[in-house]
Design goal:
The chain is globular and about 70 Å long. The longest helix is centred in the C-terminal third of the chain and has 21 residues, at 435-455. Helix 2 packs antiparallel against helix 3 (298-314), helix 5 crosses helix 11 and helix 9 (390-401) packs across helix 10. It has helices spanning 263-275, 281-292, 298-314, 316-319, 322-333, 339-350, 360-375, 379-385, 390-401, 407-419, 424-432, 435-455, 468-479, 484-487, 489-494, 497-500; strands at residues 22-30, 40-48, 53-60, 69-74, 77-83, 91-96, 111-116, 121-126, 146-153, 163-171, 174-182, 191-196, 199-205, 212-217, 232-236, 242-247, 250-252. It is 34% helix and 23% strand. It has 505 residues and is α+β, with helices and mostly antiparallel strands.
Length: 505
């Protein structure tokens, strides 16, 4: 591999000089200056006609000591390390299927992060739909705004991986810039600084829901920074460290007045809100085609969007991740989870899980085992159950779950604990997977996830000061025997002003 002398990276691989044609996407990576020097990087993913795949990540200008090890993550999953070498430290990671190496699943929505082993983000960004060496000024499609976007990424903060997006829009003589972040697990009212091309443009103040937004609009007389393809965005903390960063490298031609009315955006958002990940290509194509098949039939579009969104809660993936966590909480404490804590656990149990992908069942099982083992060691759990013997522990779980287990079932589980065939973690999973318990909690969990997913809040926060709204929808869903269409629940949430306001800009 050879370094290019220009400021833009160029991967050169002599073994590919005579190779068959390939499909290639790139991700420019950016970060905040380290002692005055701005780090940068690039990731490249290449699929050849031979089906061989290659993934490479390169960094340079990283002003840290030679020998420093950086962890490389793709969508939150660690895929390898980079050890810094040279003057202004630079190095790379290269993975190839032809060498028997594991290659992460990558699409134009995948986010890449290089962070220190202490968890400090050095550079980050996302793959794009802009080809290598793009024109700095994209051409808008007819009847749509000119929009370029930057998907922002960062290493996990206090157990949760933040994500964000910067969007720049030109319409006539008007310009708009919006930067938003979410899942940023820092105290409410934390102030973060935003830089565009290393010039500070403003501050973000974090809300209790771990989200915040900064907007600039020229029509309001505000100064909107000049943004072109390749412009960088960096969100930093009070110590000047990168929290999230990215590069404008995605062109959007959404002609709708509200982003959520665009079919592709709508489907992508269901993945983010309910599964906590970016859409995989196969899944995105499947759900998108179902909606677009309606053509201009308004009633068909409405019905299909509702069914698509509702399907995410009912999916194998969510039932084994988010709904499992809900049942863990109910069996442990007799109560529903709170959103912020739920988001952290959801990330842990769902990381790397894409139903249908190679090895997904084992990945899911490993995640479930780890989260259960961690769960029973938490202070709140140990305080509640630590003094109980095995029989008392098992009976307490069933009481919290609100289901009546047979004496033989309880005896078998207690005996397993006594003999070491079971642990308190596996006993918790056994109760959480109880069929009667699962049926009983299906509707309450469904309603709660409407608030978590669509509104990004707890049901007793924001416009609500109690659980009246939650109880209203639970009553309707119960009356409809769990039929969310008959209850008109999903429709009400995705058509609500509170939900739609998230995507209006």
């Amino acid at each position: 591999m050879a370094w290019a002398g220009s400021s833009r990276f160029s991967f050169v691989n002599s073994s590919r000089a005579n190779a068959s044609t390939s499909s290639e996407i790139e991700a420019e990576l950016s970060g905040a200056p380290i002692s005055g020097i701005v780090p940068k990087g690039e990731a490249e993913f290449d699929v050849e006609d031979s089906a061989n795949r290659e993934f490479r990540v390169r960094v340079e200008n990283v002003n840290l000591p030679a020998g420093t090890v950086l962890d490389v993550f793709v969508d939150g999953t660690k895929v390898g390390t980079i050890t810094l070498t040279g003057g202004l430290q630079r190095s790379e990671l290269e993975l190839k299927t032809e060498l028997g190496q594991q290659i992460p699943q990558i699409s134009t929505r995948s986010r890449v992060v290089a962070a220190t082993q202490a968890g400090v983000t050095i550079v980050a960004g996302s793959f794009s739909n802009v080809p290598p060496n793009p024109s700095p000024t994209p051409t808008p499609s007819p009847n749509s705004d000119l929009r370029i976007e930057a998907k922002l990424a960062g290493a996990a903060v206090n157990g949760l991986r933040p994500v964000g997006e910067a969007k720049f829009k030109v319409k006539g003589n008007e310009r708009e810039l919006e930067i938003e972040v979410e899942r940023l697990n820092l105290p409410a009212d934390t102030t973060l600084s935003v830089f565009v091309d290393n010039l500070k443009v403003g501050d973000l103040v974090l809300s209790p829901t771990m989200e915040t937004r900064l907007e600039f609009e020229s029509e309001r007389g505000q100064t909107v920074p000049n943004v072109i393809t390749g412009s960088t965005v960096t969100v930093v903390n009070s110590q000047g460290q990168t929290v999230l960063s990215g590069v404008f490298n995605t062109v959007e031609n959404i002609s709708m007045s509200n982003d959520i009315d665009d079919t592709m955006f709508f489907v992508e958002q269901q993945y983010r809100d309910f599964l906590g990940r970016e859409a995989d290509d196969n899944g995105l194509d499947f759900w998108k085609s179902g909606i677009t098949a309606c053509g201009d039939d308004a009633s068909c579009l409405q019905r299909t969007r509702i069914n698509t969104s509702g399907a995410f809660f009912l999916s194998i993936e969510f039932q084994n991740t988010g709904f499992l966590l809900y049942r863990f909480n109910k069996a442990s404490f007799g109560s529903m989870p709170r959103r912020n804590e739920f988001m952290i656990d959801m990330q842990a149990v769902a990381t790397g899980v894409i139903v249908g992908a190679t090895g997904w069942q084992q990945t899911l099982e490993d995640n479930k085992r780890r989260i259960a083992d961690d769960w029973v060691q938490r202070p709140a759990f140990r305080e509640r159950f630590g003094a109980m013997n095995d029989d008392q522990y098992v009976r307490a779980l069933y009481v919290n779950a609100g289901v009546q287990a047979s004496e033989s079932e309880i005896h078998d589980l207690v005996q397993g604990l006594t003999e070491g065939r079971e642990t308190r973690a596996t006993a918790l999973r056994h109760v959480a997977d109880d069929a009667a318990f699962t049926r009983k909690e299906q509707n309450p969990a469904f309603v709660l996830m409407q608030y978590f997913g669509y509104l990004h809040r707890n049901p007793d926060e924001g416009p609500d000061s109690n659980l009246d709204g939650f109880q209203f929808w639970l009553h309707k869903l119960d009356q409809a025997n769990g039929d969310f269409n008959k209850a008109e629940m999903v429709r009400a949430f995705i058509e609500s002003g509170e939900y739609r306001d998230r995507f209006e800009w």
